Amino acid sequence: MLLLRRCSLLVRFTGVSSTVLSKCRFYCRNVGNKLRICEVLASEEIGRNIKIQGWVRSVRSQKDVLFLHVNDGSSLQSLQVVASPSLDDRHLTYGSAVEISGNLIKSPHKKQSVELQADNIRVVGPCDPVVFPFKIKERHPLEYIRQFPHLRCRTNSFGSLLRIRSEATAAIQSFFKENGFVQIQTPVITSNDCEGAGELFQVEPATREKQQADEKSHFFSVPAFLTVSGQLHLEVMAGAFSNVYTFGPTFRAENSQSRRHLAEFYMVEAEISFTESLEDLMKVMENLFKTSTECVLAQCSEDIDLFHKYVSPGHKDRLNRMLQNEFKVISYTEAIDVLKQSSQTFNFKPEWGCDLQTEHEKYLVQHCGNIPLFVINYPYDLKPFYARDNEDGPQHTAAAVDLLVPGVGELCGGTLREERLHLLQSRLDR
């Protein structure tokens, strides 16, 4: 359906050496004056001769002028191109890939300060609009778009989502770098179960013949799985680096159709050495949330506005409220008291010693004014063996914290590690 010239570059890193392999399907043309659409829209250099490359979003041919809207994925907004009808081409259709050169001129259009006066249009990848699944000026439902995973990134909704995700990823990485954290690439294939954090996907060669299920039959000599968490590897690294983190794919073999339980997702995990209070953990969580969110709002304002308008109306004000206020803190015991005093009927009855369900978490955030909320000091028996014992009474708790946010519930959590060997040993001996 769509033919386009591409270049690809593959870089492999092994230890301290690197092998760079490059392959080029076609020789690249000299595009020294090439600009991305987002750069053109922000440019004030009227009269500059430029070149753009992208995909046609609309074509309107009139007697005296040809109008195009071209987008290259760098922004939600497309660039209007004005050309002579003599530059029209039968392959110049919606969805086709084009390369256009011309002069940047001031646009009379209110929503766009500049437009491109084309002097040359070249179709580098034709597209048949009859068989192309997306149509001009038609808002397709997400259920329809998902049927075309190879083309859905060409739609506004998925394009905006991917730009936001890219910016959020960069913001998270930048936060940790600026705060002195060392990034650790934890293994994707591992023999660790990480305290039973989730159901595991086992890894075996697809071509291996069936053998008896003993240790010698395994490819790695031991059972191997896709990682459910990089925590155990980070804990080792925390013995040499005071601040470490990992940000990578995580896999859970949970057969669920909900958004909260995915088979594959990306997860941020961090370990901080030489800390003795939950306040240190909460400070990192709050700063990470606010810094990354502010960065996304600043860099992807148009994309965010699209979702605020069509997907989550009213969410923008709620988001600003979260950024402008200090996060609140309550204990688990206080949270249970709030839930018990509520007139709302819950599917799961709140009792001290039971884990908080999503309905409980959302209510607590709403009760606290739709401000992100830290819940601290959970029952000792609810947390892993390594959670630090608060040695309190009469209700026995551990130094653990969860961050609850409006509309979601739990966003992230953490614990202080038990450093007293005799307490660790006594719990393991149970």
Question: Which properties best describe this structure?
Answer:
430 residues, alpha+beta, 5-stranded mixed beta barrel, 4-stranded mixed sheet, 10 helices
Structural account:
With 430 residues, the protein is an alpha+beta fold. Helix content is 26%, strand content 26%. The strands form five sheets. The protein has a five-stranded mixed beta barrel. Strand 15 (397-405) and strand 16 (409-415) form a beta hairpin. It starts with 6 loop residues before the first strand and ends with a helix.
Topology at a glance:
Layout: E1 7-14, E2 17-24, H1 37-42, E3 49-61, E4 66-71, E5 79-83, E6 97-106, E7 114-125, H2 142-145, H3 156-178, E8 182-183, E9 189-190, E10 225-226, H4 231-237, E11 243-251, E12 264-272, H5 278-299, H6 301-310, H7 315-324, E13 328-331, H8 332-341, H9 358-367, E14 373-379, E15 397-405, E16 409-415, H10 421-428
Q: Beta-strand level of the residues, as a percent range?
A: 25-35%
Shape, principal axes of CA atoms: elongated
Number of helices: 10
- How do the strands line up in the largest sheet? 3-4-5-7-6
Q: What sequence of helices (H) and strands (E) makes up the elements?
A: EEHEEEEEHHEEEHEEHHHEHHEEEH
Radius of gyration using CA atoms only: 27 Å
